[in-house]
Amino acid sequence: MKPTNPVFTGVKTTIFERMSRLAMEHAAINLGQGFPDVDGPKDIRQSAADALMAGPNQYPPMLGVPELRQAVAAANKRFYGLEVDWQREVMITSGATEALADAIFALIEPGDEVILIEPLYDCYLPLVQRAGGVPVRVRVTPPDWKLNVKALEAAFTENTKAVLINNPMNPCAKVFTEAELGEIARLSRTNDCYAICDEVYEHLTFDGHRHLPLMTFDGMRERCVRIGSAGKTFSLTGWKVGYITASPNLLEPIAKAHQFVTFTTPPNLQKAVALGLAKEDSYYHGLAGDLRVKRDFLSNELAQLGFAVLPCDGTYFVTVDVTPLGLNGTDEEICLRMVEEAGVAAVPLSAFYVSDAPTNCIRFCFCKKDSVLKEATDRLAAWLKGLGLSG
User: Fold this and answer.
1) 3-state SS assignment for residue 93
2) pLDDT tens by residue, 247-278
3) Are 51 and 267 in contact (CB under 8 A)?
4) 127-138: average pLDDT
5) Rounded mean pLDDT of 211-228?
6) Are 310 and 83 within 8 A, CB to CB?
């Protein structure tokens, strides 16, 4: 038979799905895939239910229902001082991954270079490759995850079309500093490039770290595609509601890609997310505060067990170095043993690299109930004790 498309044929099932399947198979606690184990605010869910029953449940406008597009524009103004025309600069998508696909397919042509920052979220590479783009990788490295500006500058060439930045950053929980973002903006302007900005964890930052959209930097308003996610902001990941903010010259071709990918998103969910975005500041502060407490608990427990806990400035995730424990094997091998023997699922950090990945770090998700986090660390303690390593 004739071959299928090699980009997707050769890609493994996502590590998150693989570890989640293993977690179910072994009755393990799943601290691998990044989703909360409780649903988001009741009023948002009730609003979705009411809108579902009231209807209409037919195709909404391709760009999104006016209520949500207006709410996205208002949130840009409220949180970041961005003046956004909701009719020409906002589009709703079926999740942030669709938004990424739309942006990449619309802006990247075969042979265009796209700068990716490792460790990188796993959909970036195949989407760039399927668009015909040439990925150019730059790394941030543990333990401080500092951006090497000289390496970034060297990555830009006359063929660079875009830089794709995830901020706050999954998996390493980095929040880019104002200085780092300033350098990315400078290099984007100098090299006449676009910036595709995956900012789904924008409201999940800790310890005084503040999310700064690249779009707010000088000269970047017309160059940036800013992507947000209701799933992360309202702990409703299964809804798959995302949103794009971009200037008309960028949003127009992105909308053309969107119309042939999903075309639209369930209208009742859109209307409910509009209600959510208008929530008072206390909701957003409470969300980050609650997650910070969970981060601190899991980080402290893991440190007591002997893991070297790396900085976590935002997102749902904490990364640890397993080297001090003396466990044999790579990060993937250790994660497989952990899910089978300890009953706890995590994700190997090497899954977020293309090649030459470090093999000594794993990622835990902490957006879980306190009792679940406690049970997970108790299981790890018993496992390590049984191995004579810790606990």
Assistant:
1) strand
2) 999 999 999 999 999 999 999 999 999 999 99
3) yes
4) 97
5) 98
6) no
- The candidate with the shortest Cα–Cα distance to 389, out of 338, 317, 318, is 338
Count CB neighbours of 363 within 10 A.
Answer: 28
**Which of 21-25, 87-91, 211-215, 332-336 is least confident?**
21-25
Q: Where would I find the H helices in the chain?
A: 6-9, 15-25, 42-54, 66-80, 86-89, 96-107, 124-130, 149-155, 178-190, 230-233, 248-259, 267-277, 281-305, 331-337, 370-386
Instruction: Kindly give the interhelix angle for 42-54 and 267-277, rounded to the nearest 10 degrees.
Output: 140
Closest CA to 301 of 316, 318, 326, 323: 318
Mapped onto helix, strand or coil, the DSSP state of residue 92 is strand
Most distant pair of Cα atoms in the chain: their distance: 62
Cα(92)–Cα(65) distance, integer angstroms: 8
Cα gap 236→242, rounded to integer Å: 11
88 CB burial (10 A radius; 0-12, 13-18, 19+) = middle
Q: Which domains can be identified in the chain, with CATH numbers? A: 6-40+282-386 (3.90.1150.10), 42-281 (3.40.640.10)
Query: What residues have CB less than 8 Å from 111, skipping those under 6 apart?
Result: 132, 133, 134, 159
Distance CA 90, CA 86 (A): 5
CB–CB of 85/251 below 8 Å? no
Q: Please write down the HEC assignment for all residues of 136-199.
A: EEEEEECCCCEECHHHHHHHCCCCEEEEEEECCECCCCECCCHHHHHHHHHHHHHCCCEEEEEC
- Do 352 and 121 touch, CB atoms closer than 8 A? yes
Nearest to 240 by CA among 36, 98, 103: 98
Cβ–Cβ under 8 Å, residues 210 and 244? no
Buried b (16+ CB within 10 A) or exposed e, 136-157: bbbbbebeebebebeebeebbe
Extract the tokens encoding 54.
Answer: 């009231």
Give Cα 102 distance to the centre of its chain. Answer: 16
Distance of CA 351 to the CA centre of its chain: 14
